[in-house]
């Protein structure tokens, strides 16, 4: 009898998020492929560091690993939007006292939203009504 998995995936560190972004953009990859792509942004990043980080992320449950091939293939255990939603909930609780409104206002006032993004937000808000 199978029981639903209720454990939560731990929050990734900044370095882990960088590797997750590569996997979300490119799909499942070997450590070598992740390293080659990540090196474009960080030329000093070495392969051993990427491999070890992927292994740690797999151990934490942040990544899945297909061991059926010679080179293990890593993939995110969670979709990007799902992880972003969970991280955002945590941020809203910790930084904005649980207020989504305070988060949105801070983003709008802080210049973090372009004119195009603001128009998209306004469109969504109008459609919600």
Give a brief rundown of this model.
The protein is mostly helical. Helices cover 58% and strands 8% of the residues.
Notes on the structure:
- By secondary structure, the chain is mostly helical.
- It contains six helices and three strands, in the order αβααββααα.
- Strands 1-3-2 form a three-stranded antiparallel β-sheet.
- Strand 2 and strand 3 form a beta hairpin.
- InterPro entries: BlaI_family (IPR005650), WH-like_DNA-bd_sf (IPR036388), WH_DNA-bd_sf (IPR036390).
- This is BlaI/MecI/CopY family transcriptional regulator.
- Pfam families: Penicillinase_R.
Q: Quick one: how many beta strands?
A: 3
The largest β sheet comes out as:
3 strands, antiparallel
Distance between the termini: 44 Å
Class computed from helices, strands and strand pairing:
mainly alpha
The strands making up the biggest β-sheet line up spatially as: 1-3-2
Rounded to an integer in angstroms, the radius of gyration calculated over CA atoms is: 18 Å
The amount of helix comes to 55-70%
- Let me know the average pLDDT: 89
Contiguous uncertain segments of 5+ residues: 1-6
Q: Which descriptor suits the 3D outline? A: elongated
Please state the oligomeric state of the protein chains shown.
single chain
Q: Number of helical runs?
A: 6
Q: Strand share of the residues? A: 5-15%
Order of helices and strands: HEHHEEHHH
Question: How is the secondary structure organized here?
Answer:
Layout: H1 14-26, E1 29-30, H2 31-38, H3 47-60, E2 63-66, E3 73-76, H4 80-95, H5 100-109, H6 115-128
Antiparallel strand pairs: 1-3, 2-3
Protein name: BlaI/MecI/CopY family transcriptional regulator
Family: Belongs to the BlaI transcriptional regulatory family.
InterPro entries: BlaI_family (IPR005650), WH-like_DNA-bd_sf (IPR036388), WH_DNA-bd_sf (IPR036390)
């Amino acid at each position: 009898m199978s029981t639903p998995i209720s454990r939560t995936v731990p929050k990734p560190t900044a370095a882990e998020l960088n590797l997750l972004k590569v996997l979300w953009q490119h799909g499942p990859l070997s450590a070598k492929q992740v390293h080659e792509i990540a090196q474009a942004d960080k030329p000093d990043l070495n392969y051993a560091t990427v491999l070890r980080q992927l292994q740690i992320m797999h151990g934490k449950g942040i990544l899945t690993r297909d061991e059926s091939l010679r080179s293990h293939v890593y993939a995110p255990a969670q979709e990007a939007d799902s992880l972003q939603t969970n991280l955002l909930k945590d941020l809203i609780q910790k930084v904005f006292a649980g207020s989504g409104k305070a988060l949105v206002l801070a983003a709008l006032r802080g210049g973090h939203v372009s004119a195009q993004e603001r128009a998209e937000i306004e469109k969504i808000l109008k459609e919600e009504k």
